[in-house]
Amino acid sequence: MLESLWSALSPFNLTLAFFGVIAGTLIGSLPGLSATMAVAVLVPFTFAMDPASGLIALGAVYTGAIYGGAYSAILVNTPGTPAAIATAMDGFPMAKRGDGDLAVTLSCIGSVIGGLVGALALLFLAPPLSTIALAFGPVEYFWLAIFGLSLIATLSKGNTLKGLIGGAIGLLLACVGSAVVGGDVRYTFGQVQLLGGIPVIPALIGLYCIPVLINLVVKPDDHLERRTAQVKGFRLLEALGLMWRSKVNVLRSSVLGTAIGILPAAGGSVAGLVAYSEAKRTSKTPEEFGKGATDGIIASETANSATVGGGFIPTLVLGIPGTPPDAIILGALLVQGIRTGPQLFTQQADIVFTFVMGLLIATILMLPVGLVMGRYAFKLIINIPKTALTPAVALLTVIGAFAIEVNTVHVLIMIILGIISWLIARIGFEASPIVLGLILGPIAEAGFVQAWLIGGAQGNIPAMFFTQPISLAIIAMTVLTLVTPFIAERRKRMKGVKT
Amino acid sequence: MKRFLTAVATTAALVTATTSFAADYPTKPVTYIIPYNPGGESDVTARFQEAYFSDVAGQDVVIQYKPGAGGATAWAQLNTLEADGYTIMNVNFPHAILQPAIKDVGYQTEDVIPAYIFHYTPDAIVVRADSPYQTLQDMIDDAKANPGSLTFGGSGTNSANHLAAVRFDQMADVTSTYIPFKGSSPAMAALLGNQIKAAMTYTTQGIKAGDQVRVLAIATDERVPSFPDVPTFKELGFDYVAGAYRGVTLPKDTPQDVRQKVSDIIGEINANPEFQQKLIENGYVLVDIPTDQMADWIEERRAEYAEGIEALKAN
Amino acid sequence: MSGQGASRSIAPDLAGALLAVCLGAYAIYETKDMSDLGAVFPTAAGTLCILGGVALTLLAFKNRSRPSDLTLERPDWPRMVALSVVLLAWAVLLKPLGFIISSLVGMTAVVWLTWRGAATVKAVVVHAVALAILMVGFYSLMVFVLRIAVP
């Protein structure tokens, strides 16, 4: 293992990791230009390198790209990847009130810690942890998605009922297209382009970013509050202090992120949301969440970066990739002549350890790179005149929706959803519940249909859904999440009566 | 007059295009569209080809993903793409015969005729290593004793795996329950996690899972080198050779000589011993169906799948 | 600002409820052609929409005296509509006009819509240069780095 560390630390590999992180962060910060794309483009170049260097470059770009998503979430309220949804909930309010620099620094430190925990888990615990991936079958995914949907109740900032309706609308959007599981063609209006369903990333860009763009144009005020006080620099000490005070949150989010990252069908979005809602549920000041609570950013960013290491666990041990970038890296491994499987950690251990070392180094490099880039991104956004910001944002939305699958129809879908999103925001409907429905709906539905069919084959459908221990635990968590706000409300009222 | 001029212009353009193109095609990188998410067999084999493409063609190939509707989204778009030979697309069978036969998916099989079919992944029935089914016969006996209780996981509904499961039912005269998953990997995860009894999948998945699984039978003519101990369906008395065939297609209007050139390039990559070695190790079986034999090959497949398609439609 | 004082306008809630009920009803109507298992989720989501819409209506009437949680500003509708048209046209023309032309036109229109101050020659030149740099930068990123085939 020390040898792997040594070979990973060669000057060439370090330079590679350094530029990989920068490139990844840049690409990831542009919504729609995702980690998948960055990694996919890089793969052919790695064929020319020796396997270890190639893998280090891929890992560095991937790590950077996942982190880069935080910038657009914080600075323009646009999670460029589903993993950053929860980051936007508090990140953007913070940026709005002039604390964008602090938010960026927090997200950077959180990502580094989460990334380290995930990578260390991959290094030391991969084979035993991979059993988590196998313990989750269709029923468990169904309940996990339902649990995720129940978070709408905790996450919606305004009217919970409207959040619920929004979630249902998201579920309906998720039904559009030809169902991979079941084969029905639904709500396509005869349009072939809709057979593949509503594309998630263009929908995210539309639902979140287009309303921001419209507001920028129609309202005369500035995009972000300008601080009257002098620019405070990185606010690193302040951020570290906040992290220290939230150490429980950091630890919990890292563990949750790693564990949920191991589940192939869940990934960064679920991890970020679950960590966020747990942070809110256990917080002493839950009412701050959604209005710029630092704990919200810490939870979301720590957890979604931890999924990077977590996601490689089933990829390498079981040959089952957790996310599309994992799948591309898996493909690159196969081409390099590496065989995945439990034996990988014994027979080709040096390659694996070099790769994990590369991930660790990239994660550590993210600290200086992220801090500096984040600072400049924030300064740029806050200082750029609005008349230059709006065309840039507009161009980015178009590119992002187009580039993900090189499809102009996706741009149209993005803009239509965006305009609708702005209109219904005026009557109190937010984007987040809709997005939750859109992302979690397919996971829930596939799990439901599969579990129903398997239950039917076993002759007992109710037992399928309600007797498995993991399912029961998730159901209990769902109930807990749903009732906590009411209990808190009641407790507050009781206190109010006493004083 | 105007019409005449346009006609002249188009002809001139076509002539120059065809002559200049075919001679030195390709002169710039070629976009290679994979109609699935990364990580599946289509992606992995394209990545293997990518490593050799520039040696053969003198230009890079750039892989791009357009997943959706089991491949149908991309195939339905194929003929809207520029027909200059710089966009090639992966196309799979039986998918491209199956999908239009069952539902309106926005394309017909004729729209996506491949320029070259370069390999197939044989169908394979895979169970967990600790499964009570030691042989295919054990499985069939159990399925006969308890109709419907045998669960086959596979990738997608009305897909290649689904067709294979239906054809297996017909051959072995049993009733199984097919459970669709969003790809081969999730199906294998469900198998390893003991949620389903068997996976109707490909040899490649059996290799990826290593000794966590046992392969019961493989749908090839002869035994696969990676699984010397696994019988073929033929040995077990079922006349069944099938799998997912993958090829490369181009928009319909691509000039014939460019199509031929692409066919030659893919064929040349297929002839590279190192490339062959890598594919065989991973459970693929190489085949060579160049563009001039394609029409007959497609007709054979249509005939082969007809009965299974009827059964799927009846579902 | 809406300027309607403390009493709450229930119009937004009623509009939302109407939207939800219509959408839910349509979703359920469409399930007639679906298989049994394929119809479960659309039916459930549609039912949720309808129930939510009904509950929203009832609550709106019940709470009509409470102050609204929405601060309704009268938006600049002409700008909003113009921007929507620009964005939609941008999306539709992306293919026929090509990426560069449609994006340059689109961005120029967005700048024009955002512009509020006086247009000095210097400002116009600065913005033109900025747009050109943006365009060149992103075009090269897509074409040369990410190797995307751009129309």
Automatic annotation (TrEMBL), chain A:
Keywords: Membrane, Transmembrane, Transmembrane helix. Residues 14-436 form the DUF112 domain. The chain crosses the membrane at residues 12-43, 55-76, 102-126, 132-152, 164-182, 194-218, 255-276, 351-372, 384-403, 409-427, 434-454, 466-488. It holds the Pfam family TctA. It comes from the Bacteria. This is DUF112 domain-containing protein. It comes from Litoreibacter roseus. The lineage of its organism: Bacteria, Pseudomonadati, Pseudomonadota, Alphaproteobacteria, Rhodobacterales.
UniProtKB/TrEMBL annotation, chain B:
The keyword Signal applies. InterPro entries: BUG (IPR005064), Bug_dom1 (IPR042100). Gene3D superfamilies: Bordetella uptake gene, domain 1 (3.40.190.150), Periplasmic binding protein-like II (3.40.190.10). Residues 1-22 form the signal peptide. CDD domains: PBP2_Bug_TTT. It comes from the Bacteria. Keywords: Signal. Belongs to the UPF0065 (bug) family. This is C4-dicarboxylate ABC transporter substrate-binding protein. It comes from Litoreibacter roseus.
From TrEMBL, chain C:
Residues 16-151 form the DUF1468 domain. The keyword Protein transport does not apply. InterPro entries: DUF1468. Keywords: Membrane, Transmembrane, Transmembrane helix. It comes from the Bacteria. The chain crosses the membrane at residues 37-61, 81-112, 124-150. This is DUF1468 domain-containing protein. It comes from Litoreibacter roseus.
